[in-house]
Amino acid sequence: MTTHDPQMIKGVLGLLLLQLLDEGDGYGYGIVTRLQENGFEDLAEGTVYPALARLEAAGHLDSYLLRSAAGPARKYYRITAGGRTELIRARRDWDALVERVRLLTPTQLTAQTGA
Amino acid sequence: MSAYEWFRIRRTMLAYDYWLDVEGVTGRARKDLRAELVGNLTDATAAVGYPAARRSLGSVRTLATAAAPDRDSRPRWVVGSYAAIVVFAIGAFAALGLITAWADGVMAAGGGQGLWIGHPFFLPWVEITVRQGETLQILATFNPWSVVVPPLVAFLIGSRIWRLATRQSSPTPAAQVR
């Protein structure tokens, strides 16, 4: 099982959720299981649900209820046009951050300074 | 899902509903949030069992806080109700104790049979009549407002009633069921 720094995950959770919902609508627990299947086994429902609520409040997601044969109706989230714009921005920022971190590795620093 | 798990989910939902109310989430929005969580918790329980599902959920108070986008703008009716109940209970017990102590003091000082009428020091608006005959009779007379006003004031302050005048509009509830 892969473990992640919880603080780092919190920082990119919005990006993860928008990315996931850009591929298809999902409901709370379904989203959690999709994230866990994609290598984020340590992500808990208690972290994901508030993040979904925040994204919805910010207008990046909207929601609808869908009846479920297994139990109560499920609240499905889907990404909005504003959410897609936010996803593009967040992904660009993330790529830039990764690139900067990569450039700061000792090997790269050594190569750049010629030491 | 077993009946025990069903019961435990409902118990968790009661706690969640309480904290949503404390956070000032209104009836319709609260119902939607409750429905969403009961659906998710039911699915999680079916998949991994209630203990793991509940553990993964974390604190329902934290969840409720996160789910209340403008929680500081609405009255908190539950908090107000609890404040009123606490003030009423404390007042009732204190009055009972003071009245009993006053009557006991009068009887100890006077002795024998007779009729005493007076007002205890801490409850000047209460008139106490003690009649000592073959049987002991203690009667306390007071203005009903003295019972109603303190809990009412506690309710108004506890619920932050003034937020009704300054509250923002409710968040849009979830769209219709498909």
TrEMBL record, chain A:
InterPro entries: Metal_resp_DNA-bind_regulator, Tscrpt_reg_PadR_N, WH-like_DNA-bd_sf, WH_DNA-bd_sf
Pfam families assigned to the protein according to its UniProt record, in alphabetical order: PadR
Domain Transcription regulator PadR N-terminal: 17-87
SUPFAM superfamilies in the cross-refs: Winged helix' DNA-binding domain
Domain of life: Bacteria
Protein name: Helix-turn-helix transcriptional regulator
From TrEMBL, chain B:
Regions that span the bilayer: 79-103, 142-162
Provenance organism: Candidatus Phosphoribacter hodrii
Superkingdom as given in the UniProt entry: Bacteria
Protein name: Uncharacterized protein
UniProt keyword terms in alphabetical order: Membrane, Transmembrane, Transmembrane helix
